[in-house]
Design a protein that fits this description.
single chain, 711 residues, mainly beta, Immunoglobulin-like, 10 helices, 38% strand, elongated, developmental protein, FRAS1-related extracellular matrix protein 1, carbohydrate binding, CTDL_fold, metal-binding
Amino acid sequence: MLNQEQMLKTALPLFARFIISNGLRTKHGTFKIALEAADQVLPTLSRNMGLRLTEGAMALLTPDVLQLSDPDTAKENLTFLLTQLPQYGHLYYNGTVLLQYNFTQQDVDNRDVAYKHRGGNFQTDRFTFVASDRTNQGFIVNGRVQSEPVTFTIQVDHLDKMAPKIIHLHCFSDVELLKNGNYGIYITARSLRASDPNTEDDKIIFKILRGPHYGYLENITTGGFIQEGFSQKDLNSKIILYVINKSREVNSDNLEFQVTDASGNSAAPQRLELRWSRIEMLQTEYEVCENTGVVSLKITRAGHLGESAFITVKVNEISARLGKDFTVTPSKLVQFDPGVSTKMWNIAITYDGLEEDDEVFEVVLNSPVNAVLGTRTKAVVKILDSKGGQCSYSHSSGQSKHDFWGRGMLFPVSSGSSSPSRPGNVSLERIPLPPSKGMRGHGGDLWQEHSLANWSRTRLKVTGNGRIVPPSSVYRNETDVVFKYHGIVSLKIEDDTSSAETNKKAQQQINVISRKTEIPLSDKAELAAEPRSRHKDLNSFQKACTPDLKGLLHYEESTQKLFQCDGISWKFWNSQSKEVTMKKCPSGWTYHEGSCYFLVVNHKVTWNTAARACREQYLGSLTSVANEQHMQWLWDFSGKMPFWIGLNDQVNPGHWEWNGGEPVTYTNWRRGSYHFSVRGRNCVFVQKRGKWQATDCKKVKPNSYICSRKL
C-alpha cells in the first residue's frame, strides 16, 4: 500500500474499475480517486553557519552557510522571515538593497542574496529570522521545534592597513668561515626582524630595492642568488647568507630594502649595514739582530672594531729552529677586544754568541674568528748574525731601522751592540726618531718644548750620585716615546746644549719603578690578554675619577697599562681608544664600551616621542642597559637626573623588551614598582639612584632621555 509521500512522488494514476449487473445486463465503469496533499511536516533549519568577511566587503549567502529543508514543501515556498535587519551593513537581492523582509531558499540556492558591510571598526554584525513553509507554524532547529527567531552571525575582520613594523635592525658583523673557503655573514632574526599582528612570518616580505655593492645574498637551502627579496620566515630559519667578496679589500657593504605584508602595505625603505673587520700583518719582512732580545710582530685589524675577533698564529721553521734560535709564547691565539685595532705578538730571539749564517722563519695568520684575513697573511723574519757583537741591517727587506722605529718596533738603546754601555751619561742620540710636533706629559710645557729632534741631546741621570742607568728598551707608542728601565731609581732630564739656567727650568723628576720579577720577553704580550681578575681592579685607584680630572692619565704598575679619567671612571687608554672615540662617535656623542651615547636634557617629551627622536633624528635607539656597571655609568652620564630608557612592553604586555632589540639580561626595578603587566604602564623611566619605574608611555616627563648606537 502506498503512503501519502510515495503517492505524491510517483506519477501513477489513481482509479478503480467496477462492473454493475442486474442479472440481465452488465455495465462496466471506472471510479476515479483524487488525492489532495496535506502538509504535516515542519521545515528544518539544517545549516546556519554565519559569514566571515573583511571590513567593507560583500559576501553571498549560499547553501553552504544557510539552508532550510522540508520534504513536503517546494524550495520557493521555504521562506526566511526577517525579524531584525543587519546593523552595520545591508542585505542585497540581485544587486540591490533587499526591501522586503523575506527571501526564500530558492533565492539562496540561486546566489541572489548577499550581505555587504558598510565599513567601520565594528567586528560583529547579525540579522535574525524565523523559518516557514507558509503552512505550518514553527520550524525545527537541532531536533527541537521552536518559533523564536534565530541569529545569523556575520564576523567582520578589520582590513589590514598597517605596514609591518621593524623591531630589530642592527649592523651585522658576525663573520663565519664557510666550507668553501669564503667568508659570510648570516642574516637572521636576531638582528633583522619585522612584526605584523595581521600577517604570518612567511608573508612578511623584505623586498630588495638595491642589492649589496660588493658581495651577494644567497639562500643556503636552494643555493641560489637572492635578488628580489626574502621573508621573515627565511630569517627565522637562518638560511639567508651574505657572501663577502674576497677580491675586494673592503670592510663594509649595505643593501636597501622595504618590508611589505600580504595586503600590500609597505614600511619606509631601510638600509641594512654589514660591517666586518680585516686582520693582517702590518709588514711582511723583518730583519733583526740576534742580540735584539725580542722582535714584536704587529698584527692590525681594520674595519668594524665594535666586536671581539680572534686570529691564530702559526710559526713555520725554514732555516731557524724553534726552541734553538727563537722561542714563542705557548698561546697561538691572538684576541682583539672591542675597539682594539693593533696587537703585538712577541718572539724571543736566542743569542748564543756563535758566528753562524743568518736564519729565517715565517709567521702565518690563519683561522680568523669574526673577521676575514687580509692580503698580508705571512711575515718572514730573518735573524742576522751578530758577527761578534755587531750586525748591520740590510735594506733589501724594504724595512730600515728607521721604519722599524716608526712602526713601534722594540730596539735596545745601543743598537747593534750587546756589550754594556761605557761609563758616562746615557746618550739617546743613536736612537732614530721621526719628526713630531712634540710630546705632552704631566711636567707642564717641558714635553712640548722638547721636539723629537732635541731628544738626541737629552740625557737621563740618576739624581744625586751621577750613576748611569741605560734603559732596557725604547719604543714609540703612536705619539709617545716610552723608555723602559729595570730597578727603582730617580732620574732627571738634562739638555746638553742648553745653558745652566735653562737646565734648571727643564729638569723634571721621573720615578721609574719596575716589577720585581721579570717576565720572559716572549710572554709580555700574554699579560695584556689575561683576565682582569688576575690583576688589580682597573677602577680601584686611590684617586677617584671625577669631572675635574677628566683627561688625566694614570699608569698602573701592576698591570703596566695606562688609564684615563673620562670624568666618571678610569678607562683603559691607548691610541686606539682615542681613535675610536674621536673618529667613530659623532660630534657631541660619548663613547663607552663599543657604543656611542647622546644625552638629551630638559625636553618635555613622552616615551614614544623620545624613541622616535632617537630613531629618526639621532639614527639610534633609546638606550638599553646591559648590567649593573652599565646602569651606574648611565646614571652618572645623565648627571644623576631622571631619564627615559628603551625598555617597554607595548607590543606584548607583560613581555618587556628593549627598543633597540637587545635581549633583556638585567633589570633594576624600584622596590614596589609595577614591573608586571599593568594597563597604562608600559614604558620605563629611570628615577632616583638609577632605579626603574614603569609608567605611562604617553606621560610627559620634563627631564631627559639617552640615545645610543653601536659602533
